[in-house]
Amino acid sequence: MKFMGTLIAVTDLGKSRKFYRDILGLTITTDHEPTVTFNGCIVLQKMDSWIDSIQSKYVMFDNRASEMYFETENFDDIILRLDTFGIKYVHKPVMRGWGQRIVRFYDPDHHIIEVGEAIETVMRRFADKGMNAEQIAKRMKLNVDFVKKCLGESKKGDNHAV
Questions:
Q1: Are 109 and 11 spatial neighbours (Cβ–Cβ below 8 Å)?
Q2: How many helices (H) and strands (E) does the chain have?
């Protein structure tokens, strides 16, 4: 079996297409109404078409028990874009204990989106502040060989966890 992607049912395909393209910077790979497919295996489908394909009247909405997670090397640029477009936040940017900045917000149909700083970007930020690989590994609870590899200091290991 092979995972092929996540389908998101949307009420306004045009508005959602614009959101995922212009705000999240995703690239459209196919656009055949009633569906739009983006890189990263995300598919938008018009709500009425999706409900017809399920052939069931027992579809529950407003779950909010899931989110789509993205990482970026340009966290500050994403925040500026969100503010420019007046996006509704789940919460403003926060920093996790290991130093990664994240933000959660809603798409046009109130699906939750999380964008976090790429882990390698966090490591580079700490290195730029003078921390060595061992200090970064300890702060981020990562394997030191993994940190060294990401920082270009070593080619050994690829295990994220300590």
A1: yes
A2: 6, 8
- The range of the structural domain enclosing residue 136 comes to 120-150
pLDDT tens for each residue of 111-134: 999 999 999 999 999 999 999 999
What residues pair up with 35 in beta bridges, in sequence order? 32, 45
Contact in structure between 81 and 113 (CB atoms under 8 Å): no
Q: What share of the chain is helix, strand, coil (3-state, %, to 5)?
A: 35, 30, 40
pLDDT at 6: 92
Q: How far apart are CA 123 and CA 135, in angstroms?
A: 10
Distance CA 124, CA 142 (A): 14
Whether the pTM exceeds 0.90: the reply is no
Q: Say whether both 2 and 49 belong to one domain.
A: yes
Q: Which helix H or strand E contains 29, and what residues bound it?
A: strand 28-32
Do both 24 and 35 map to the same domain? yes
